[in-house]
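Inverse folding, one chain.
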């Protein structure tokens, strides 16, 4: 009820009542003043109250009628504006409204029409940007796939393909020497076995890179355990794994850490000739510690021969720095490699 009487129509009626009351007080004060000061014959107390009474009764009905009539058009136009705003809120920016009165409400209606047009243009721009973003994402994905294929093709040509060619040549030479010089044939077969082992390690590393680069919905500890379990079945390396099962990190950190571990294990398979690998992932306070150690042949960090592993190490370092972490590596020839990573979380 209170909300109803606060509408524009009733506000107009109340304003007419206020005008009626002020006019009533003013006329009554004037008539009483004339009656007291001059006491004319035509002005009596009865005539004063009769006039005032008729004025109040007639003015009461006139105020109600005038209030409804004068506020009807305004209320209708305000309702139109309200409907237009509701249409905008529902995303229908093509709705428009037109008034011919030329007053303030007409100006507001024109401004709302202009606003609807701008909102509609912005929606079209956002949809166009979304389409362009989708196309860019597709192009980026295609480029990434092509680049990865080219990289794997180079690795297959530079490593596995050459090693298989060498295996073929050494095998043929061993067959020829088998009857003539068994000792030389035995040495060559040993070289064949070593080359086959190296080619196998290279192939495992390439297959490791072909794994999904994300965790597929698994938490980081489970993803690492699956990765290590798979490598245990396909290699002779003894893995010592220490990962907190209750480890909880943000999705971005988990993806980067998993990719770093994947890259480090790939390097170990391809270059380290290691028999033991220790992987430790623990959270202490507000930092995540990653410790990766192998007992492989190691390398001299200052030597140009380290370029074979520099790409993988550079990728790992960049991923670590993207998370605001620190990347430390220590390695010497025949002393293995130690990688320590600290990431704030």
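Residues assigned per position:
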């Amino acid at each position: 009820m209170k909300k109803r009487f606060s509408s524009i129509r009733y506000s107009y009626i109340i304003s007419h009542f206020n005008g009626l009351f002020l006019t009533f007080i003013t006329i009554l004060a004037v008539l009483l003043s004339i009656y007291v000061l001059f006491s004319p014959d035509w002005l009596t107390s009865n005539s004063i109250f009769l006039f005032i009474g008729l004025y109040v009764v007639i003015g009461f009905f006139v105020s109600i009628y005038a209030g409804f009539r004068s506020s009807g058009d305004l209320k209708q136009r305000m309702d139109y504006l309200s409907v237009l705003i509701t249409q905008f809120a529902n995303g229908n920016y093509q709705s428009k409204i037109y008034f011919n009165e030329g007053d303030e409400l007409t100006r507001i209606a024109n401004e709302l029409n202009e606003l609807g047009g701008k909102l509609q243009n912005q929606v079209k721009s956002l949809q166009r940007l979304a389409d362009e973003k989708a196309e860019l994402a597709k192009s980026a994905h295609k480029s990434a796939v092509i680049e990865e294929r080219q990289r794997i093709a180079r690795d297959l040509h530079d490593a596995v393909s050459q090693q298989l060619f060498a295996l073929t040549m050494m095998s043929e030479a061993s067959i020829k020497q088998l009857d003539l010089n068994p000792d030389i044939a035995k040495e060559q077969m040993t070289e064949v076995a070593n080359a086959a082992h190296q080619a196998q390690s290279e192939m495992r590393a390439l297959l490791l890179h072909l794994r999904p680069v994300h965790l597929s919905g698994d938490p980081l500890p489970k993803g690492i355990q699956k990765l290590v379990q798979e490598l245990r079945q396909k290699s002779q390396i003894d893995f010592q794994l220490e990962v907190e099962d209750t480890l909880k990190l943000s999705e971005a950190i988990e993806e980067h850490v998993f990719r770093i571990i994947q890259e480090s294990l790939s390097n170990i398979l391809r270059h380290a000739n290691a028999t033991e690998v220790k992987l430790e992932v623990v959270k202490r306070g507000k930092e995540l510690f990653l410790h990766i150690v192998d007992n492989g042949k190691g390398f001299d960090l200052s030597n140009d021969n380290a370029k074979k592993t520099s790409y993988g190490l550079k990728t790992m370092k960049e991923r670590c720095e993207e998370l605001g972490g620190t990347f430390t590596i220590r390695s010497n020839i025949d002393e293995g490699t130690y990688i320590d990573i600290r990431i704030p979380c």
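The longest strand covers residues 276-284. The chain has a mean pLDDT of 80.
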